[in-house]
Amino acid sequence: MREVDIMSTFSHTNILSLKGMVLRDATNNPWMVFEYMPYGDLAEVLRANSPQFKLSKPGMKPLTKNSLHWISIQIAAGMSYLSAQRFVHRDLACRNCLVGSDLVVKIADFGMSRDIYTCDYYKIGGSRLLPVRWMSPESVMYGRFTLETDVWSFGVVLWEVFSFGKQPYYGHTNEEVVKLILQGIILLPPDECPSVVCQIMRDCWKVEPRERIKFPDILDRLEKAQSKLIQQGSLPRPPQGPVTVRTPDVLDPDGYLLPAPTTTREYLQALPALSN
Prior knowledge:
By secondary structure, this protein is an alpha+beta fold. The chain is 33% helix and 11% strand. The protein has one domain (1-231): Orthogonal Bundle (Transferase(Phosphotransferase), domain 1), CATH 1.10.510. The protein contains 8 helices and 10 strands. The strands form 5 sheets. The chain has a two-stranded antiparallel sheet with strand order 1-2. A hairpin with an 8-residue loop joins strand 1 (18-22) and strand 2 (31-34). Helix 3 packs antiparallel against helix 8 (215-231) and helix 5 (147-162) packs antiparallel against helix 7. It is globular, with a radius of gyration of 18 Å. It comes from Camponotus floridanus (Florida carpenter ant). Residues 1-229 form the Protein kinase domain. The active site is at 91 (proton acceptor).
């Protein structure tokens, strides 16, 4: 019921709308009724549109770099709204964003994706399942979740978007990822990622939480970059343009993309040590 109470107060274009609830009796949990998003979760949409597969869903145009920028703006807008409500999401990831008609993206979860994406979650010290690949160092180390940890997760979401849905730290187990995060090893921006987006990622991944960029500033930067692209004629609405073809990767047995045979830490870089 608490989740229903919280979600019923949200009203934003980029937040999944709760339409109602069904309660059979007082002993059962309520069934929540949400608006329908025909293209499903963003992670699946990105992977289907990756240069390797190019399997756009029926009725959806192929994603371009400009489309990825528009997706990022919408997620930033939704998170800016949530942060203004002082709401901490705790599980921001592409799997928890849904895609509707005209490439409208809405932030969802709120605990609904764990059953189908169990490989993205990991138990630390016998605790509940946690999305470690999207977690900040202080979340991994202390179990602390704040608006600043959501900002860290947003940086990982940008990485997902511009890598066409690759799993963060692909090629590493969840246990290895925990160690990497605690060692201060972070992701490098994907190839061909716009410089403004690369810088936002870095500003999301500052070691000290108070030094991280705020969601309104993220949204402002992305919208200013969009305005420049529109002025240059490279970002029409709806966004269109050629997709940059990249060397295809291979899949592991679980269906996740594995890195091409290059150096082990090509996509990782070190952060300064986390202060106590």
